[in-house]
Every structure is written in C-alpha cells, then in structure tokens.
Automatic annotation (TrEMBL):
Transmembrane segments: none annotated. Residues 357-463 form the Pyridine nucleotide-disulphide oxidoreductase dimerisation domain. Gene3D superfamilies: 3.30.390.30, FAD/NAD(P)-binding domain. NAD(+) binds at G193, S194, G195, V196, T197, G198, A199, E200, G280. Signal peptide: none annotated. Homotetramer. GO terms for molecular function: flavin adenine dinucleotide binding; NADH dehydrogenase (quinone) (non-electrogenic) activity; NADPH dehydrogenase (quinone) activity. Binds 1 FAD per subunit. This is NAD(P)H dehydrogenase (quinone). Residues 10-336 form the FAD/NAD(P)-binding domain.
Length: 472
C-alpha cells in the first residue's frame, strides 16, 4: 500500500474508551486519517466512572489498612510519648473529590495526546448510516455531520444493569458510577452482587470502616474464579467482619428516607444506610444503527466479533465491553490496536482470550491467567498443579501477610499453561506467569529465571521447580 493510499484511509471511531483511544493512536501511527467521537470524555467509563475512580478508592482503603495494622509490625503512634492505638478517620468527601479530579485529569491528558497525534476529536454522539458512513451529532453546537469512513470501529462500552424493583436513585440506592457523589462514609452498605465489582467495593468499604453486607445469589463470592482463591477471599471477608450472605437473592430495594430496606427472596428484610447494586452491565449498542448496517448482535446486545475484533461486516470492528470479548480495559486496548493493524494490512496478532491476565482488586488481590485447575478436573486440558501458600515465603512473613498463595499449572509436557496469585500486588506478580504462557515457556525455564531474595515472586519460581518432572 502506498503512502498516498494509506493517508486516504479514514478510520472513524465511535467511543473514546481504552479501545477507541488505543485504536486512534495506532491509526495515526500507521498514517491513517482518524476521527474519534466521544460524548462523555476521553477514557470513557474506564477512566471517568469505573476503573480509575474505583482503584483510586481502593488505594485509599489500602492506605487506611496499613495504618490500622502498623502496630503488628512494631510501628506505634504516640501522644506526648505515650503509645496510642491508631484509629483511621475517613473523609469520603475529600477522597471522592480527589479521585474524580484524578480521573478528569487523566481524561484530559489522553485527549491532549490524541490531538497532538493528529486525531480529530469530536464531542458528540455517533451512529452508523450503513457500513461506510457515520452520522455525528455534535454536543457543542448541535450540528450534524455525515462522515465517510473506510473503517468504522465501535467502542461504546457498557452501563450498569438496573432492576425494576431496585431502581438506583443516586442517594441511597446506587450503581458503581454513583458512589463517588457520596460525601460521608456509609454507616452500613449492602452490596448486591458478588462478582468482581461487588467483591471489590465490599472489600474497599469495609477497609474504610463501613459495616458491609454482601448479598450473593451464588454459593460463593467471585463465581467462575479459581475455587481456592474465592474460598480464601470469602474467609478473609468474614474474618474482617463482612456479613456474606450466600445463595441469597435480593428481590426488592427501597429507600426509606434515612436508609434502605432490602427484601430477600425468602422474605427476610435487611436494613442498611446505602445499597450498591452490582448486578452486571448492559452494552451501549442500542440506537447505533448496527443491525441496519448488517452488524450481528447477540441476544444480550453485544457485538459479535472474531479474534481481530472484526464484526460480520468486513470494514466494521468492535472493541471493549460492547463486544463479545472479555470486559477488561487491557483487552479493549489490545483489541483497538489489533483492529487497526488488521484493517491497515499491518501484522495483527489475534487476541487469545486464554492468555489474558485479569485481576480482582480486593484485599488480598486475586490475579489469574491461562487454564485453571478446574479445567483440568473437567478434562478440558491435561496438566499438573502446584500450589504454595505464602506463609512459607520470607518476604510475606516480613510484611506480616497472613493470607495468600501462588498456584502454577503446567501441561503434561511441562509447558506453563496457567496460574493464580492471591497476594498484595497480585496484579504485578501475575505478569511473569503471563509472559511464560504467551511465550510457551516450560516450568523448568521459568524455574531457571533468577528471582530476587527475598521477594514474593520467589514463590513462583519455587512452584515452577516443584513441577519439574525428572527424565527417567
């Protein structure tokens, strides 16, 4: 493809979340003309109302817990030379103001980077008009514009699912996007839903000092995650005073004026000051003209895509939470780059969901990648599992860690195919296992890689050594 032909390639991106942002940068890098349409702010939900704010809140909760547990490490607070037991006080108004400012600053930084790269950024709403045109309704002046595009990339994200019997009001009954309007710490927050979102906020608000009840319709928290990790986290939750109600479904939530009443399926009523509804998300695909353009959607409204993010229309791609891939910011970003590489004729490596590392930002964190132990038990893959508790790790002892483990999985041929880390900063520790899986390293090769002593990563090496099968 010549330079002139490349420059004529117009990519129109609807949605400026992680996928749309990365697609735009990749497009300009390859010489395409790029237009990005975003109605709320660059970064989308991930930056403005989801990942960045929630993880900032969790970072504050972690800081509060370090203060609370300092005495166990021999660190005391004193007044006039007399030891006092540390007690943390949380100003949630200040916390939320900080995290919202941080999110807004991050969004503005991303917008500046796009403009500097040569991307045309339009604040407005976009919808398909066939599979080669996009109609843009600008927010600032209300004018409409019809853009011709050689490639269209849809990156519109998702919004919190709502129940008719538990309508969020932004005051007492909340979605995860509304929590940051609170100025005072909830006295007793009832979290409905024990998936990743519910578990993370339950963990964070308990660490901040709220009484927490977690209502789970499943047998355990984090259904679908590693069973040992979920069981350990639930144990930690209970030890920390969280009231975990398993196999219990919330039927109705009512704002009583000074609190909430949650009616359960068995007729019981539990009372609290606030209720967080964490019952899933719905893709923002309605009204985009997708079906009229011949783009296939699933029953749930997600856009059906293949491993290079291509839809049923050859020149239309979809990335992120609105697609049928994993709803993770890292996956969305990778999809965005892959889509552009593919449509521009560059080298595009298909996204392998099995190689995606994910993390639950609870305390402790839970990170996983690749095949799981349950997959071996179900006969989906053959392999061996080695699990080592962190209470044998010298660095963990130094830090006063009571809970955690590292689990490594290899095939019968010795290749690393999966792993689970339950520990502080598991999101960082899982990276070495993800590299091993992506590059098809053997357990022996992983074991031969030097680690720092003392470190938590040393346990990954120990697990790899334990998986060594001698040649006999």
């Amino acid at each position: 493809m010549s330079d002139n032909e490349t420059k004529k390639h117009h990519i129109v991106i609807i949605g400026g979340g992680p996928g749309g942002y990365e697609a735009a940068l990749a497009g300009t890098q390859l010489g395409a003309q790029v237009t990005l349409i975003e109605r709320s702010g660059i970064g989308g939900n991930a930056v403005l109302t989801d990942v960045v704010p929630s993880k900032t809140l969790i970072a504050t909760a972690e800081a509060a817990q370090r203060v609370a547990h300092a005495e166990a490490l021999g660190v005391y607070f004193s007044i006039d030379g007399k030891k006092v037991k540390p007690k943390t006080e949380i100003d949630l108004g200040v916390v939320n103001e900080r995290l919202l400012n941080l999110a807004q600053n991050q969004s503005e930084d991303m917008r500046d980077q796009l403009i500097q790269a040569g991307v045309r950024v339009i604040a407005g709403n976009g919808r398909l008009d066939g599979n080669h045109h996009v109609i843009v309704d600008a927010i600032e002046d209300g004018k409409s514009e019809r853009l011709e595009a050689k490639t269209i990339i849809v990156s519109v994200g998702a919004h919190p699912r709502q129940l008719a019997s538990a309508k969020p009001d932004g005051e007492r009954i909340l979605t995860w996007t509304q929590l940051y309007n609170l100025t005072e710490l909830p006295e007793h927050i009832i979290v409905v839903g024990s998936g990743v979102t519910g578990a993370e906020f339950a963990s964070a608000y308990r660490a901040l000092g709220s009484e927490v009840t977690l209502v789970s319709s499943r047998e355990t928290v984090l259904p679908g995650n590693d069973a040992d990790a979920a069981q350990l986290l639930e144990q930690v939750f209970r030890n920390n005073g969280i009231n975990v109600m398993n196999k219990t479904r919330a039927e109705k939530v009512v704002n009583t004026g000074n609190g909430v009443e949650v009616t359960l399926a068995d007729g019981r009523v539990i009372q609290g000051s606030h209720c967080l509804m964490a019952v899933g998300a719905i893709p923002n695909t309605a009204g985009l003209g997708l079906e009229e353009a011949g783009v296939v959607l699933t029953e749930s409204g997600h856009i059906q895509v293949n491993k290079v993010a291509r839809t049923s229309r050859a020149n239309v791609y979809a990335v992120g939470d609105c697609s049928t891939f994993l709803p993770l910011a890292s996956v969305s970003a990778m999809q965005g780059r892959t889509a552009v590489f593919h449509t521009m004729g560059d080298v595009a490596s298909p996204t392998e969901v099995r190689n995606v590392a994910s993390n639950v930002f609870t305390a402790p964190e839970i990170a996983s990648v690749g095949w799981m132990e349950q997959d071996i038990k179900d006969g989906k893959v053959n392999g061996f599992v080695e699990k080592i508790d962190l209470n044998t790790n010298p660095r963990a002892k130094m830090q006063g860690l009571d809970f955690g483990f590292i689990k490594l999985i290899c095939s019968t041929g010795g290749t690393v195919i999966g792993g689970v880390v339950v520990a502080p900063r598991a999101s960082d520790l899982i990276y070495s296992i993800a590299i091993a899986i992506e590059n098809r390293l053997t357990a022996d090769e992983l074991a031969r890689t030097f680690t720092v002593y003392p470190s938590l990563s040393e346990t990954i090496s120990n697990a790899a050594r334990a998986l060594h099968k001698p040649n006999v």
